[in-house]
C-alpha cells in the first residue's frame, strides 16, 4: 500500500471538500487541488485497481490524432504502448493523479474530462489515465488551496515518499516517482518514459482531423542524469565544444533495425548508465533510448526511419556529444 487520499491531504494541511465520480462536475469554483482515485473511500490506502488494465479503444483514439507515436525512437504498436505505460503503474495505490487549478477547480477538472487523448489543450496532463479500462468508475477528490502550485508540489512529494522502495524498483523509472498518470514529477521534470509523437501541434489542436501534424519529438528540456552518472558528467564539463566520437560501421542489417551501435572506444563520451539522449539530426530533435550493454557496443535507439537513411553502408557516423545531447553529422 502507499497512502490514502485522507492521509495525503492531511499531511499537506489541506481540507477535503468533496468527491464526485469521473465525468461529474465538482463543486469548487475557486483555486484548489484535486486527486483522481480508484475509490471514493477517503481512508482506503490500497484502492480498487490492483493492475493496469488498458482500454484498447483509447489507443485507437490516440492514433486518430497522432498516428506515428514512437517508443525509444521506434514506431509503437498498441501492445507496446500499453506495456510501456503499464510499466509506470504503482501497485496497491488508490491515488492515480494529482492536479492543480489556479483559478477554478471546477473549470479545470471539466477541461480534464473533455480533452481528447492526443490533444495538447485545454488539459493534456495526466493523459495516461485515459488509457484505463473503467475510467468512468474513478473518483475525483478536491480541496481548496490558496497557493495551488505549492499545494500540488506538497502532495506530489508526500505521495512519492509513501511509495515503498520495493515498489519503486519495479517501475520503468525507479527514480522519478509520482502517481501513475502524473507524467511530470514536478514542473520541468518528467518521467523517463521514452514516448514521443503523442500530442498534436498547438496550431492544429482545435481540429479532429487525422491529418494533423505531429508535435516535435524533442523533449522540453535536457533531462538531468541520474545520481550515478553525475560524476562522469562532471569529468566532461570542460569540453564546452563537445566530444566528437564515431559509431560502428553501419551494415545492411543495421538499416533494418532501430539501433545505432556505439563501439566501446566511443562509449566514454556518453552516460555510464542506461537512459535517454536528445539526438539532433537532419534539422530535427528526438528523444532516444541509450543502452550501455556492459562491455559490448552501446546502442542509441534512433528508430528504423532514421537508420534507413543514416550515413553510408560500411561506414561509421560521426557525432558530437555534449552531456546527454548528441549531434549527428551529415
Q: Notable features of this structure?
A:
single chain; 330 residues; alpha+beta; At1g16640 B3 domain; 2 domains; seven-stranded mixed beta sheet; four-stranded antiparallel beta sheet; elongated
What can you tell me about this protein's structure?
The chain has 330 residues and is α+β, with helices and mostly antiparallel strands. The protein folds into two domains: 5-54 and 78-204, no CATH class; 227-328, At1g16640 B3 domain. The chain is 21% helix and 21% strand. The protein has eight helices and 16 strands. The strands form four sheets. It has a seven-stranded mixed β-sheet, with no helix packed on it. A four-stranded antiparallel β-sheet has the order 1-6-2-5, sandwiched between helices. Strands 4-3-9 form a three-stranded antiparallel β-sheet, with helices on one face. The longest helix is centred in the middle third of the chain and has 15 residues, at 148-162. The protein is elongated. Mean pLDDT is 86; it is low at 204-240.
Amino acid at each position: 500500500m502507499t497512502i490514502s487520499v485522507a492521509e495525503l491531504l492531511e499531511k499537506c494541511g489541506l481540507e477535503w471538500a468533496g468527491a464526485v465520480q469521473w465525468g461529474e462536475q465538482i463543486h469548487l469554483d475557486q483555486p484548489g487541488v484535486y486527486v483522481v482515485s480508484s475509490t471514493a473511500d477517503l481512508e482506503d490506502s490500497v484502492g480498487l485497481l490492483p493492475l493496469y488494465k488498458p482500454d484498447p479503444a483509447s489507443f485507437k483514439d490516440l492514433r486518430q490524432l497522432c498516428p506515428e507515436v514512437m517508443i525509444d525512437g521506434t514506431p509503437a504498436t498498441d501492445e507496446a504502448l500499453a506495456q510501456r505505460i503499464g510499466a509506470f503503474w504503482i501497485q496497491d495505490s488508490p491515488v492515480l493523479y494529482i492536479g492543480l487549478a489556479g483559478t477554478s477547480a471546477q473549470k479545470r477538472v471539466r477541461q480534464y474530462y473533455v480533452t481528447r487523448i492526443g490533444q495538447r489543450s485545454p488539459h493534456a496532463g495526466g493523459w495516461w489515465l485515459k488509457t484505463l479500462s473503467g475510467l468512468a468508475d474513478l473518483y475525483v477528490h478536491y480541496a481548496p488551496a490558496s497557493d495551488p502550485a505549492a499545494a500540488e508540489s506538497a502532495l506530489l512529494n508526500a505521495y512519492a515518499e509513501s511509495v515503498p522502495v520495493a515498489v519503486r524498483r519495479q517501475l520503468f523509472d525507479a527514480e522519478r516517482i509520482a502517481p501513475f498518470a502524473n507524467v511530470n514529477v514536478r514542473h520541468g521534470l518528467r518521467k523517463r518514459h521514452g514516448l514521443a509523437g503523442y500530442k498534436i501541434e498547438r496550431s492544429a489542436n482545435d481540429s479532429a482531423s487525422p491529418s494533423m501534424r505531429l508535435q516535435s519529438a524533442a523533449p522540453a528540456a535536457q533531462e538531468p542524469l541520474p545520481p550515478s552518472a553525475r560524476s562522469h558528467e562532471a569529468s566532461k564539463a570542460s569540453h564546452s565544444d563537445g566530444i566528437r566520437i564515431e559509431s560502428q560501421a553501419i551494415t545492411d542489417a543495421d538499416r533494418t533495425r532501430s539501433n545505432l551501435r556505439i563501439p566501446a572506444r566511443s562509449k566514454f563520451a556518453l552516460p555510464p548508465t542506461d537512459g535517454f539522449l536528445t539526438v539532433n539530426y537532419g534539422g530535427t530533435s528526438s528523444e532516444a533510448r541509450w543502452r550501455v550493454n556492459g562491455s559490448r557496443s552501446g546502442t542509441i535507439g534512433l528508430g528504423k526511419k532514421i537508420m534507413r537513411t543514416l550515413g553510408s553502408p560500411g561506414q561509421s557516423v560521426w557525432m558530437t556529444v555534449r552531456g546527454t545531447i548528441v549531434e549527428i553529422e551529415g
